[in-house]
Amino acid sequence: MKKEIIKKIAEKIKNSKKIAITSHLRPDGDSICTSIALSLMFEQLGKDVDLINKDNTPFPFNGFPLSQKIKIGQIKGKNYDLIILLECADVSRSGQKNINENFLVNIDHHHSNNYYANLNWVEPKLSAVGEMAFYLAEELGIKLTTEIATHLYAAIASDTGSFQFSNTTAEALEICSKLIRFGANPIEINEILFAQNPPEKIKLLGQVLSTLELSYKGKIAYITMFREFLSNLEVKELDTEEITTLVRSIKGVEIVVFFKQMGDSRYKVSLRSKGRINAASLAERFGGGGHFHAAGFSISGEYKTVVESVISKVTDFVKEKEKELNI
């Protein structure tokens, strides 16, 4: 753990009066819940804090009552002593257009980060920015209330897939154990995060799974969510992480490629791997990035051409890994 940068960030926070916190585009549970926890921590220190995201808070994270603290839009002016960006590889990832002249703090646990801020705290070995916020709370001498503990626990539980993903570590579990002692209720949190599925989501799951294809000796699985699936269900967007988790559970599958149609010829591609397949390294070949077992990128083109091109490159990548490991 990078103690020196934590101390520098803590010192800057102590010397700041007005602070803004923002997350990446299409924010997830880790960034959303961590931002709420940080706002509560800073308010405990007497700071004036604004939570401002470019994109709306998605389901199920809008089920946390304090999610209403988050404003949607652009951070305006130079009125802030400090702006914290959570899980943003660069400023553009936040969707905020007028913040470069402010003092920026970059907090991230992804490999693909450009170290663009005045203070950069990037630790890919940590499970979530929620875990990083816990260490920051310790440095700041924060009293962990039930609300703070709840949101930090939710951040870590969300990003580790309820402690099923490869970023689950002994340290993350130890922190969550402490958070429970401070009042976090894992049963209630899991209910919000993982047991509030609307019927439309289950129907969507069925449609996406119907596109399942296997490639390269059953080691590569790929699925697609077309825009028409969502329009037929009269919904704009639903969290789909469980779909990739289910497909990744297929025996013999080492990597899942999930194509999500974002426009007529635009696709967001999510990669979920297991074992020694580095999804982040693969995503970087397409201009993306992420974690070792969870990464992604965007690509444009005609659907059939896009799929053929991506699956061909994924196959080459898997073969390279096999050759490297003498499999």
Detailed description of the structure:
It contains eleven helices and twelve strands. With 327 residues, the chain is of the alpha/beta class. The chain starts with a helix and ends with a helix.
**How many β-strand stretches?**
12
Which class do the helix and strand fractions yield?
alpha/beta
CATH topology of the largest domain: inorganic pyrophosphatase (n-terminal core)
Q: What is the class of the largest domain in the CATH system? A: Alpha Beta
Strand-residue fraction?
15-25%
CA-atom Rg in angstroms: 20 Å
Could you give the order of strands across the largest sheet?
Answer: 3-2-1-4-5-6
Largest sheet composition: 6 strands, parallel
Overall structural domain count? 2
The residue fraction in helices comes out at: 25-40%
Instruction: Give me the number of helical elements.
Output: 11
User: Mean of residue pLDDT?
Assistant: 93
Question: What does the secondary structure layout of this molecule look like, with pairings?
Answer:
Blueprint: H1 3-14, E1 18-23, H2 29-44, E2 48-53, E3 70-72, E4 82-86, E5 104-108, E6 119-122, H3 129-140, H4 146-159, H5 170-181, H6 186-194, H7 199-209, E7 213-215, E8 220-225, H8 227-232, H9 241-248, E9 255-263, E10 266-273, H10 279-284, E11 289-290, E12 294-300, H11 303-325
Parallel strand pairs: 1-2, 1-4, 2-3, 4-5, 5-6, 8-9
Antiparallel strand pairs: 7-8, 9-10, 10-12, 11-12
Helix pairs in contact: 1-3, 2-3, 2-4, 3-4, 4-5, 4-6
Features:
Diaminopimelate Epimerase, Chain A, domain 1, 39% helix, 20% strand
